[in-house]
Design goal:
Layout (H helix, E strand, L loop, with lengths): L1 E6 L3 H13 L2 H4 L2 H6 L8 E5 H6 L1 H5 L2 E8 L10 H6 L3 E2 L2 E4 L8 H11 L7 H14 L7 H18 L29 H11 L2 H7 L5 H13 L27 H15 L7
Parallel strand pairs: 1-2, 1-3, 3-4, 3-5
Helix pairs in contact: 7-8, 8-9, 10-12
């Protein structure tokens, strides 16, 4: 039986694929979906894929019996009703593992969805879980909750914690021996450049803002435009011309046109000179 690891497309997917490729011989390295799913019993096969591919090739992947199924960024299946959640819970495997940096979800139903993949049925069905845990715990968090409801919520939390604890491995900051200096924060206020201010004025007088104010467009679209404007005015244009310049003759993406970059430029010159490193 093979091993399946599902993870978001991008850097994590690439790193996992490269590491797994180093473990396999040349023949297995070129195997992909069809060959992995058709591997004979007793031969190790590892399939690293993305959630999008799991959704697209669900029929083929679900037909295979997997020894292990590992979900990276497990919060992808936090929605119990999502298609990808339903697909992942149908995998034929005796060993399930979820990796996530956010094990405490915003809603208890999301926590149930993750745990129901690891140990199907342990916490009951979703309606049962909500009746026994979600509703009592939620009622105990209200500001006007009675002492009885608060005590009931606390007892439900203890029962839920004890039911889940044997199946959870948590890594705390105290477990990581990192000798880092104490974090300090300093807020720098960045002013708009003249180009950003002009773009801001044109945006406010534009068709999109008018449609938002008349409730014919979603306000989020306008907020996204303002966010782009605060970063760089060229983010509001369609792009550069063939000569690498915009319609106003400026070099596309010129850093001096951004108020944030003007504040960042002296910092990037100062810190390396002092022996410090910087991550932007």
């Amino acid at each position: 039986m093979g091993r399946l690891a599902a993870c978001p497309h991008g850097g994590v997917h690439g790193r996992l694929a490269r590491r797994v490729a180093a473990w396999l011989d040349a023949a297995a390295r070129g195997a992909l979906l069809r060959k992995v799913c058709g591997v004979r019993p007793g031969v190790c096969a590892v399939c690293v894929t993305s959630y999008e591919m799991v959704r697209s090739h669900a029929t083929q992947l679900l037909a295979q019996r997997w020894q292990y199924v590992v979900l990276d960024e497990g919060h992808k299946i936090r929605n119990p009703d999502a298609e990808i959640t339903q697909i992942c819970k149908r995998f034929a495997t005796a060993h399930r593992l979820i990796l996530t940096g956010a094990p405490i979800q915003n809603k208890l139903a999301e926590l149930w969805s993750l745990f129901d993949f690891v140990f199907p049925g342990k916490l009951g069905t979703l309606p049962t879980f909500e009746e026994q845990f979600s509703i009592p715990i939620g009622c105990g968090t209200y500001a006007n909750a009675s002492a009885f409801k608060k005590q009931t919520a606390y007892q439900c939390l203890l029962v839920l914690r004890d039911a889940m604890r044997p199946y959870m491995l948590r890594r705390l900051k105290a477990d990581i021996d990192l000798h880092l200096p104490e974090k300090t924060e300093k807020v720098l206020f960045c002013h708009l450049t003249d180009e950003q201010h002009d773009a801001y004025e044109r945006f406010l007088d534009g068709d999109l803002v008018a449609r938002v104010l008349s409730k014919r467009a979603h306000a989020f679209a306008a907020l996204t435009g303002l966010l782009k404007m605060c970063n760089h005015p060229h983010l509001m244009t369609r792009g550069e011309n063939a000569d690498g310049r915009t319609d106003d003759g400026q070099a596309y993406g010129a850093w001096r046109l951004s108020g944030k970059m003007r504040e960042l430029e002296p910092i990037l010159r100062k810190w390396p000179a002092e022996g410090d490193r910087c991550l932007v």
